[in-house]
Amino acid sequence: MGVEIDQAFVQEPQHRPNLSIAKAQEIPLIDLSPITTTNPSPSAIEALVKQIGSACKEWGFFQVTNHGVPLSLRKNLDEASKKFFSQSLEEKKKVSRDETSPSGYYDTEHTKNVRDWKEVFDFLAKEPTIVPLTPHEFDDAIIHWTNKSPNYPPNFRGTLEKYIEEMEKLGYKLLELIAMSLGLEAKRFEEFFEDQTSFVRLNHYPPCPYPHLALGVGRHKDGGPLTILAQDDVGGLQVKLKHKTDQEQWVTVEPTPNAYIINVGDIMQVWSNDAYESVEHRVMVNSGKERFSIPYFMFPAHDTEVKPLEELTNENNPPKYRPYKWGKFFVHRTDSNFRKQNEENIQIHHFKIA
Ligand SMILES: O=C(O)CCC(=O)C(=O)O
Ligand SMILES: [Fe+2]
C-alpha cells in the first residue's frame, strides 16, 4: 500500500490542477528597454505605456525583459535560497516566524484553507516595518516587525537587501508606467510607499508525489498593488484567463530566462476602480522536480486608506469600493496564515459597493 497524502493538502475536486492543460496562449512579454536605456524617445515610452495598459486590462499579468535588474544579484539570491532550504528542518525552524513578527521561515501556509505544498522564507524590505497590532478596526495600537537573520548561508541578509533595493527601483518604474497608462501623473502612486510594508518571499516547492491532488500555492489573488516575481526554469505558475466562459481556463506561464513576471493585485483593482483587475493564479507542483520562486510584494504603508482614485471616478463611474485601511487588511491575512480557519479570508469584495 502506498503512503497516503495528508488530507490537509488535498484540493477540492473542482480546484485540482489539470495536468494535461493545453498551452493555448501566452501572457504578454514586454521589453522595458525604453525606460532602462539612456535618452529614450518619447514615442517609445508612449508605445510601452500602451502595451502595459493593455496587458493590465486583458491579463492582469505580463512578463518583462531588459528590466535593468543585474542578473548577478538574482543569481546570488537564487543560490542563497537553495542553500538555506537545503538545511535540516530543525535548522530552518531556528528562524521561524512567530506572532510578534511574521517574517522568517514557515511551511504551514494555507491558501483558502488547504495547505500549500511549499516552504517559504519572508524578509521585510524595511526594518522595522510598522503595522497595526491587531486587525480590529478601532484598535490604534501599532507594532514593529523585524527580520530574522539566518546564520547560513553567509551574508544572507546582505544578499536579500541588495536584491530588495533593485526590486524597489523596478517597482517604482512599473508603477509610473501603470499610472501613465491610466492617464494619471507618473508619480501618482509614490506617496503611498513612504513607510511601505513590502517584503520579499523565497518559495521552495519540494517534489510532490500527488501533483493531481495538491497545489504549491492554491488559487488566490495578491493583496497589494503590484508583485514582481522571479521563477526558475521548472514552471508551474498558472494564471486564470480573464474572459468569462462556462469553464475556468488556466494558462501556464512558461519560464522565460531572466524575465520577471509582473501582476497587478487587489489594491490596483481598487485604485483603478476595476479598470485593472487582480487576477487569480496558483502554482502546480510536480513529482520529479523541486521548484524555487521569489516574489517581491510591493505593499504600501499600513495607514494607507485604499479607495478608488478621484481622478478615475466621476458621476458616470462612481467609486465601486468603500475605503479600507491596508494595514488592517494585511494583518488580518497574516493572522489567518497561522491557522486553518472556518471562515473565508478577508477579500476586497467585502468592501464592494453593491
Ligand atoms: O511561485 C510562484 O510562481 C508564485 C507564487 C505566488 O503566487 C505567491 O507567492 O503569491
Ligand atoms: Fe501570488
Automatic annotation (TrEMBL):
Alphabetically sorted, this entry's keywords are:
Iron, Metal-binding, Oxidoreductase
Q: Does the keyword Nucleus apply?
A: no
Pfam families attached to this UniProt entry = 2OG-FeII_Oxy, DIOX_N
Q: Does the keyword section mention DNA-binding?
A: no
Q: Which domain of life is it from?
A: Eukaryota
The residue ranges of the Fe2OG dioxygenase domain are 196-300
- Enumerate the InterPro entries for this protein: DIOX_N, IPNS-like_FE2OG_OXY, IPNS-like_sf, Oxoglu/Fe-dep_dioxygenase_dom
UniProt record similarity statement = Belongs to the iron/ascorbate-dependent oxidoreductase family.
**PANTHER family per the record?**
2OG-FE(II) OXYGENASE FAMILY, PUTATIVE (AFU_ORTHOLOGUE AFUA_2G00750)-RELATED, OXIDOREDUCTASE, 2OG-FE II OXYGENASE FAMILY PROTEIN
Protein's name according to its UniProt entry: Fe2OG dioxygenase domain-containing protein
